[in-house]
């Protein structure tokens, strides 16, 4: 039964949700595998945040970055909302299946998703970039406005994410929630003005208004989360009850393994949504922004690092508990690994090519060097992403079955580590090839690609050798299959 | 129909001597000896953590033994892992199903990797026997626990293995599923396969197995006839062994 927001029941529900959130966060912290590493990682993230917020004001000349502030403010909203709609409610404090037996309310779930929202490379990089811009343009005095903007955008994205999931569960196209993004774009001009020319009073007023809006959005998000939780997760239910036509037996072991692995990707709701989002969103941005070829060289890295985070960092999660049975099948471990790597490469290359095809529409006719730069960037970042995925999958397996649309292949903190490491490696690669392509240095580009691809290939071979070790394999099975 | 007929020359289906399995500092199995002849069904009983499932995983080729000799149908699981896996059918104690593959795709995977010919009729018959025919082409993620258990037994039995390993096959399974599992065990015995059944359900174990091995703390305490473990007397004897 609906209850009024100001009623004693609603207040009691909020108090309970906050208390449950505290317990769940404590549980998460208490069950960390490497608490010291996590403490170090959090300290590093905090340091980088402080550096991003303070250094630009000292190092960058006034006026140099003013033109980037508006796109920076807009990007935080666009990326947050796009991710929230695709993610269907944000990150989960605990996986859906184990948590389903506990009386955890949708409000707790909503608050948990908000608390975990910063644990994503996309959110962190956007935030660092924006705080740096705000600091460079408006000085340290404008930072409260920047922080308040990030908080408000995050709560708006979460509320729109729940709205999209509500629509989805009512059999309505989730992307119909997208126009709500206007709520986040409307305040851009006054916020921009406050950062660029505002005095202390005006900035304080804008910051307070943004925080108040964020508080309201937290409440709105909670209400929509409650309404959403009353409905069946339609996509997951449909996928888990769908029938699939019989296909003839393939001609080789590898083909059979590949077929099962491919099905595990494309029949999983989070992987389908994530892959589609990553294949279309960056390409759409490139198309809308009319990026040139040197900028397009960055795109394959962006897509590859995003796609590998969908399942590649914990490749065996595609089998879930079925890995235990699969390990008893008489086939060479190398064939199993090859099939899994093949499917990952398909996703990475497919997403990258689609992005490039969209971006190429307005990029004009490339020179030979520019075309080579984009192609080689794609090849190298795919090799880097594959080698990283294989290494991390063997070294740090996690038990997850990717049944929920919000599931991730690893817990939030390791995901942050993976995503930042991937983003750094693939962005540097993209910058290298984009720069060499713009300079027309085909002679340097090819050797660079050979060196980088060979380094990744050597790591892939090493990962294959490790997977052939039955003791290491048994350890992975023990974790993934329980 | 199968790619491999049971070998009539194999004297012992399962031969385990001095098996130790260590996970870091934890010794999950601390010197187990087991033997099952072709055509014999042996039950493994014991409390949680007794080492039953770990022993089964070693026999299935998933966990390498830290020490000791382990042979299935004459193949050393460490020296001949692929040959050993070909002759074993294993129903794991937990899960055991690829969540987004259908039962038929599981059967196809097993058949392809084991080079089975003409397996489809047996596959269909087993699915019907276990009341899974109607869901043969549905992904297993939405299966109930009992359905998953039943499908795991089907997968273990498809290739008519020389060694059938069933770990908790009755857990959460309805009476018809239990009957179907009994049928699979009887069939396996009748064609000369060795069968190991690990379970907590002593009553069911003694109905289908001739002998019972009791494990405690990673070692085998005793191997007795199923008759000894039957009824109230058997229950008392079992409790005494576990105490």
TrEMBL record, chain A:
Organism lineage: Bacteria, Bacillati, Actinomycetota, Actinomycetes, Propionibacteriales
Name of the molecule in the record: ABC transporter permease
Keywords: Membrane, Transmembrane, Transmembrane helix
Species in which this protein is naturally found: Nocardioides ginsengisoli
Keyword Transmembrane: yes
Chain segments annotated as transmembrane: 37-60, 72-90, 111-135, 141-160, 172-192, 204-229, 274-291, 297-317, 337-359, 371-394, 415-438, 444-461
Automatic annotation (TrEMBL), chain B:
Keywords assigned by UniProt, alphabetized: ATP-binding, Nucleotide-binding, Transport
Keyword Glycoprotein assigned: no
InterPro entries: AAA+_ATPase (IPR003593), ABC_transporter-like_ATP-bd (IPR003439), P-loop_NTPase (IPR027417)
Domain of life (superkingdom): Bacteria
Domain ABC transporter, first and last residues per copy: 14-242
UniProt-recorded Gene Ontology molecular function terms: ATP binding
Family per record: Belongs to the ABC transporter superfamily.
Cross-referenced PANTHER family: ABC TRANSPORTER, ATP-BINDING PROTEIN
Protein's recorded name: ABC transporter ATP-binding protein
Organism of origin: Nocardioides ginsengisoli
Taxon lineage: Bacteria, Bacillati, Actinomycetota, Actinomycetes, Propionibacteriales
